[in-house]
Amino acid sequence: MKQILVNLLSNAVKFTPEGGSIRLEVNGDAEHGVVDFSVQDTGIGMAPEDMKHLFEPFVQLDGSLNRAQEGTGLGLSLVYRLTEMHSGSVSVESVVGQGSCFTVSLPWQSTSLDKSSLPDPSQLKTVPEPESALVESCHPSGVILLAEDQEATIQILFDYLTTLGYQVLIARDGVEAVELSQAKHPELILMDIQMPVKSGLEAIKEIRADTDTATIPIIALTALAMSGDRERCLEAGANDYLSKPVNMKKLTAAMAALLN
Ligand code: MN
Questions:
Q1: How far is the CA of 95 from the centre of ligand 1 (A)?
Q2: CATH of 2-107, one of 3.30.565.10, 1.10.530.10, 3.40.50.10860, 2.60.40.10
Q3: Beta bridge pairs of residue 89
Q4: 52, 122, 250, 254 — which has fewest CB within 10 A?
């Protein structure tokens, strides 16, 4: 939810000239079980033909695997994917020169309780406390190294992995990835391929060449699902490969397979 709003708000800031305004509005519709988060700006707006491919991933990316910078098209495709994962929808209204309004609609169940439906307080005492120790033991533990240069992806994966109970180390380029692997011996490495200073492929090769780190499981991540990517990653020494934006279910499954 935080990532969705950060992406929409920073997008609004980016396309709104100085002196303009940005507004976040939240409306709960209990009757239809929907909550709408609308981000409105007084920015440059978009023509209808520009809105057609707005939520498609990587529309602004070029085809080079070694490209240094991600295009701005990634933010909105992430919003779209994250909203989908929450069983919601995204819509946009825009007028050139007047501004845009992005609305994320999510399923919502009102939790406001009718007082008459509350149970007798004396009965509440008989409800046993949840076994917190049992809940704790279901969480995985361990150190994961996340090598990734793109801030939005770092945020999402960091939040997701820490929520699962992992300790997450972050490397922002290939050199840091190799250094942290050697210094911290993580249980698993998530390795972005397109990174500055040293690419993920080079970093994987170096980690594999060092006997201390040679057996650490590595999942390669790449923003462009190009043919041959998988082979290149596995050839360099990665155990598995996922394309971005990362599907959390696939990531969890891939990690579970390698950590067992
Ligand atoms: Mn990258």
A1: 33
A2: 3.30.565.10
A3: 105
A4: 122
